[in-house]
Give the backbone structure.
Amino acid sequence: MRVLWALIASLMCCVSAAAEESGAPGSSTPYPDRWWADHIGLDASSATRDVLAQHCAAPQPVTVAVIDTGIDYLHPDLPRTQLWVNAGEKLNGLDNDHDGYVGDLIGWNFVDGDNNPWDDAGHGTLVAGLIAAAPGGRSSGINPWARIMALKVLNAAGYGRSSDLAAAVDFARAHGARVINLSLGDAELGEVGARAVRRAIDAGILVVVAAGNQARDTHDFGLADLDGVLTVAATDRDDRRAKFANWGRSVRIAAPGVDILGVRARGTDLIATSGAAGYRPGAAIVGPEGRYYRASGTSFAAAIVSGSASLLLSCRPTLSGVEAGRLLVQSARELEPKGVNLQTGYGLLDVRAALTGDERFWVEAHIDAVTLGGSAEAPTIVVTGTVDASAFGGAQLRAAPESYPDDWLDIGAPLAQAVHAGKVAEFDARTLRGPRRWILELVTTSSDGKARAARYVVDLRAAP
């Protein structure tokens, strides 16, 4: 069975800011513990309260599967009320619900093959807390109606097997999870794992994946590059892509992932386990009782998106998980660079906008790749991507010199038909005369005139 190189080592790149600013246990920072909530439209303003009162009048419980290192199910901020409980199972040594797992009351430990998904690393607990930690604590979760299904696939060192990951995804699907959080770095799924994820997506489950922390392209980067998942990049306190966050075609949305305070599993020091250079053991532990932990990574950005998706499903229970994910993407707040881009996808998560959004309306504009080809005598540029809308009105490719970004030139005729991950344009590269670097912009328009644009910078120096 294939071994997953997992998340612990991937944290080493993005540890310094959190470690330096957290200081000794109990220390404070010059910014609020939940600074990120203000950035995603979940501040304490009257406007937010009004939106929740109007659009979330009768919230329903939603099961979120956290496939990770397990959870600290004895932490006071993760009481039984915040956990998924298998109503068909009893602790009597029998497989009461006949699902093949004996005593799977709150989840399953796929590492040891038992019903105790205890977190001996700390990562899964931090992720789970961001989603559903009980209100009133120092790091309350996004959705108090979320119920965490604890599925342990990684050991204390951050290693696991792809077969266990696949089994966990199937477990989550079979037991009613509506959101699956996979903050597993560059886990290599193989075909077995990929098929399990596809079954979950086909069942309407939202699968949220961390983009990874290597500051590299997500192309061929395991989970993050799977079709149909919601891949999440991380932003900092200035709403810029975090320097460590991966980027690429598969990134759909961004959420805060720097200096995130969350729930700590007792006895763990996640960053120390990673072996990060310069980290002083215990420096990221927060609070006089060490109940909290501060860390950075796309893992925690993904958890914030999963929690937000579950809140949307609690408030709008008729949505599928996949529909909730699309609504989050469509309502995201555009960041620089403008338009849908490789850095932050459709932009920064905006929960308040999603709660008030129309799930029936969507506009897609996405550039997957720009290929320079042809010959020196007849150089060509091929643009592949997606243009579509709930009511498709058309699409247009245009270009502008990077040095004159408002001087647009239409490329070819408008597209009258939607395109999905295919060729949207092929044209003579000599159309772009003069400057070496050009911005290509693909604009999709719905029939009511609303538009969305995706941008891509092309360097003509690479042409034949």
